[in-house]
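PROTEIN SPECIFICATION:
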Amino acid sequence: MANLRAGLIGLGMMGRHHARVLRSLEGVDLVAVADPGGDPHGVAGDLEVLPDVHALIAAGVDYAMVAVPTQFHTAAGLALAEAGVHALIEKPLAKDTEGARALAEAFESKGLVGAVGHIERYNPALQSLRARLEAGELGDVYQIATRRQGPFPARIADVGVVKDLGTHDIDLTAWVAQQPYTSVAARTAFKSGREFEDLVAITGMLSGGIVTNHLVNWLSPMKERLTVVTGEKGTFLADTLLADLTFYSNGLVKTQWDDVAQFRGVSEGDVVRFAISKPEPLKTEHEAFRDAVLGKPADIVTMQQGYATVAVAEAAIESAKTGQTVQIEV
């Protein structure tokens, strides 16, 4: 069987990583790259840098990776759908819900595989966490809290921190819990002189009653990527920078010291950091999409799921503007 012919549009900070992974992918040949801004990182190799998505389509690709700025996702994706080309589009799926809905409908109507690059789903720590929650290792889940903080990235110019970093946490939370959001309330701040927010605090509710909290900013000198899930039997802590998963269990040993015991709801138990395999998330994401294009069972982030994430992000932005909790249709 001939290898799949893959194309890449967008050769910026993320595009260079997609090019590297596509070249390493079994059963795939990277045959065309495009970027109207050229090739700043020198990733094209011996391939001609094509000017736009239409030239990429004309090169005869089976599927395309779209890594252009968010504001161009909808136009590029719709052109690929019209041409019958499967596509994996970087997150967020689109700049707004209208564009995200249009993409989801276009790929579905054409019977094409369309996916969104919510890479955190492929982080080994979160994949292990989801499996353990599904197996009931935490019992009833009460709360999912995330912290995603770091310096401002020069690569982002067309969306704020909610739609860029925040969509990671929105998607991974709904995916880990296997429950959609029903409401969000948020507050934002604008501290770096840009038109878009660079800090957000979001409180949400999932359909099963899980309370969520997300602290996200581009204002911290340190980088932090944590997901904390608290439930009936203890707490899981996933550090996605290191792909580590740690479990803090509720203790079964009664605290004998009365002055200490009266201040604690649960007692301290064992702490276990799991030894888990740590493949590169970006490669796992591409392998899943390749398999989906080949018609094999694959765990991809569908465009409908990507649309739902954009809708939650927009609800958070609306809440910050109005000061009101925003209900989300499930």
About this structure: The mean pLDDT is 94. Residues 303-322 form the longest helix (20 residues). The chain has two domains: 4-119+282-300, 121-278+310-327.
